[in-house]
Design goal:
39% of the residues lie in helices and 45% in strands. The chain has 112 residues and is an alpha+beta fold. A four-stranded antiparallel sheet has the order 1-2-3-4. The longest helix is centred in the last third of the chain and has 24 residues.
Length: 112
């Protein structure tokens, strides 16, 4: 197997393993709604070849990886389609914390 074939084979395996269906499963239908999982998927590849003709040595190597994390879900119903982000709770907590800090600072300045 030459270097190009090795990279192609690695890419095909990572592409298959990093699909949303393999990471989070198939869409789910229940109660007139369809829920479709959405993922953020990232790939990384690297490779190289080298030779030292004077010493009769050569080498080829390649590597890669895939990472996935939930982005949210699409909810489809007769009422419409909406995206529900996976980090909605975190965003709400950050907004509440920012509001608390702003209120605290406002109260401190008002006391002066």
């Amino acid at each position: 197997m030459d270097f190009a074939e090795m990279i192609q084979a690695m890419q095909e395996k990572l592409t298959y393993s990093g699909s949303v269906k393999n990471v989070y499963g198939e869409p789910v239908q229940s109660g007139g709604k369809t829920v479709i999982p959405v993922a953020k998927i990232g790939y990384g590849f690297g490779g190289g070849t080298g030779a030292h003709p004077e010493e009769g040595r050569s080498g080829t190597g390649a590597g890669g990886g895939v990472g996935a994390k939930p982005a949210g879900v699409f909810e489809i119903s007769e009422a419409g389609t909406r995206f529900i982000p996976a980090d909605a709770g975190r965003q709400l907590a950050l907004a509440a914390a920012a509001g608390f800090i702003f209120g605290f600072l406002f109260a401190k300045f008002r006391e002066r």
